[in-house]
Write a structure and sequence with these properties.
The complex is a heterodimer of chains A (269) and B (201). With 269 residues, chain A is mostly helical. Helix content of chain A is 46%, strand content 8%. Chain A contains twelve helices and eight strands. In chain A, the strands form three sheets. Chain A has a three-stranded mixed β-sheet. The two termini of chain A are 22 Å apart. Chain B has 201 residues and is mostly helical. Chain B folds into two domains: 2-61, no CATH class; 91-200, Cytochrome Bc1 Complex, Chain D, domain 2 (Orthogonal Bundle), CATH 1.10.760. Chain B has helices at 2-16, 26-36, 52-59, 66-77, 91-99, 118-121, 141-145, 149-160, 182-193; one strand spanning 37-38. In chain B, helix 1 runs parallel beside helix 3, helix 5 (91-99) packs across helix 9 (182-193) and helix 8 crosses helix 9. The chains are: A mainly alpha (269), B mainly alpha (201). Strand 7 of chain A pairs antiparallel with strand 1 (37-38) of chain B.
Chain lengths: 269, 201
Amino acid sequence: MFRSRTSALAPALALALAALSVQGQDTKKEIEKYQKMIADSSPVELYELQGEALWKKKQGPKGASLEACDLGRGPGVVKGAYARLPRYFPDTDRVMDLEARLLHCMTSLQGRTREEATKRVFGDDDNPSEMEYLSAYVAGESRGVAVSPGTRHPKEKASYELGRTLFFYRAGAWDFSCASCHGEEGKRIRMQELPVLSTPAGARAVVATWPAYRVSNSQFKTMQWRINDCYRQMRMPEPNFVSDATIAVNMFLVATGKGEPYRGPGTKR
Amino acid sequence: MHTTLTITLGLAAAAATPLTCAEPSDQQTLGVLQRDFHARGQATMDRVVQDGLQRICTLSGDQPPAEVAKALEADQMRTIVFPSGSLMGEWKRGEAIAQSGRGSMWNDQTGAAAGGSCYNCHQLSPQEQSHGTLAPSLLGFGNKRGNGPQVQQYVYGKIYNAKAYNLCSQMPRLGHAGTLTEQQIKDLVALLLDPASPVNK
């Protein structure tokens, strides 16, 4: 069901890419047309449904579902929870984003080991990960809710400041920081437009649409993946999954883009 | 070395003034990176530690004082190993190197031929329309400048270590970082300067 829907997209994609390469002028217009086209035929809803089924599925040594998981609005409340992350959780005494919290619920409610639950957090085109399905479901339940991460607790403030520092921290084999690519208006890598993520205008559109389905490789991707893959391209070592550093970068982005109504999961090139 | 240290300390002191209590110290930031990242493939953990240049560019928001920039650019210039003789390789090989975005990432095989990722940011050959715009267009580069020894030397040096010419440039130090070999840089010089290269057509 999944695959047929995805492969039906391929001809449209090829056509759009051909249009892109033929017409050098009006490139921006073409890209916008193409973005609208892919958004109109996205399989995001299927990921959300699959995620909901996994949310309700009894798993792990405790044979429990995630339905009692507290995403910040109380046990079992999914509506509007994603739009209020990352935030500080007293029970773990740390700032957590969606994937950190999901992992916490898998270990605490379902009794699974961290090792087992994080064995394959990033999927591939044949086999999306549990984390990706669950992210699609939980994020989809925040559509229409203004993005408003936690900003009052001292650890939330510290996370934001750490994220900002990391955003501008130049290092690695190629001397890059996040701002090397996301620091100047109106620029592209190849044909990919680059939002300036340290400004509200640039961050808003991003935090309102991640996690997202990517047409170019027919995969659903989470924010933890996005940050991970940026660091790969920055020629840095790999960040640990749901580490404080990755959550801080996410917190900086989300806090910078706060106020925007969530309208994801989005569909990206 | 001593001047670099003094300059670094000076900049650190200047940057320390507007600190809020939540902002992490340099030591804390490095501690977080060393705890929250792990080595993978050729991307080893020494990469999270800034060298002097990365530090000064980060501290100054990529705008170091002119005299600091001048002194450190001279240091970077000394890292460039210029081969003797012609620096012009084969533009066709250069085009392939410019196209490839591989190299120095954790999923790139150690020792495998890398690319320069040039098209990610620059326009070069007019046939390639999928080019980035983060950096200046290099279309017609050699037409405007010729291809004499001096311009060859400039292009070779710029690709080898862009920071010798503009300290906080966002362009990687492709030779200095060990991403591209001497021959590959020569091939890129040809892509930019050879009159037969599509860049100059």
